[in-house]
Amino acid sequence: MSADTLTAPTPTPHTEAPRRRRWQPRWVLVVAVLLVVAVALGVKAVGARASDVRSGTEAVSAQEFAAHTGITVTLLGVTGGGGMIEFRYQVVDPDKASLLLHDKDKTPILVAEGSGEVIGLVARPHAHKAELLLGGTYFFMLANTQNALRDGTKVTVIIGDVRLEHLVARS
């Protein structure tokens, strides 16, 4: 045996062992950002479902809605250049309908069904002594925040613990 066979061959550039790739700091940062975004979106989705104003209410037919609230919704009109919503209703039971004006838990809440945007009264209507008349038509004006409602938007109306779904906003 010669001395040449006992020594290890000198590596040449072509025979070097492949290097292990190290994690680059930018990839670690990208993965961390993606995880934070995913967690934030998950928390937001869970929170949105928990705070949905429709939860705890019962979906009813138009006839049942009128029996519970004393009104029939006749128009959800997008007006004022799209910045206002006219909530027009006809009274079918004056005693129940008067709660819309005097009971803060009975004021109408509108929910855009596609986006979940909520529209409510910015201020309570004026308390007055005028009585609502059977068959009378009345209205509330609501601010169309975030332009949530447009012509053709499907809307859920909530009053108290009942909701009327799939009404269509018109301009």
Brief summary:
The chain has 171 residues and is an alpha+beta fold.
Protein model, in words:
It is a single chain. The protein is α+β, with helices and mostly antiparallel strands and 171 residues long. It has two domains: 22-51; 58-168, Immunoglobulin-like (Sandwich). The protein has helices spanning 25-50, 62-69, 94-97, 99-102; strands at 58-59, 71-79, 84-91, 109-112, 118-120, 137-143, 154-159, 162-168. 18% of the residues are buried.
Runs in which pLDDT lies below 50 for 5 or more consecutive residues are: 43-50
Query: Based on CA inertia axes, which overall geometry fits?
Result: elongated
Do you know the CATH architecture of the largest domain?
Sandwich
Overall structural domain count: 2
Mean pLDDT: 81
Q: Count of DSSP E strands?
A: 8
Per DSSP, the total helix count is: 4
CATH hierarchy class name of the largest domain: Mainly Beta
Fold topology:
Layout: H1 25-50, E1 58-59, H2 62-69, E2 71-79, E3 84-91, H3 94-97, H4 99-102, E4 109-112, E5 118-120, E6 137-143, E7 154-159, E8 162-168
Parallel strand pairs: 1-8
Antiparallel strand pairs: 2-3, 3-6, 4-5, 4-7, 7-8
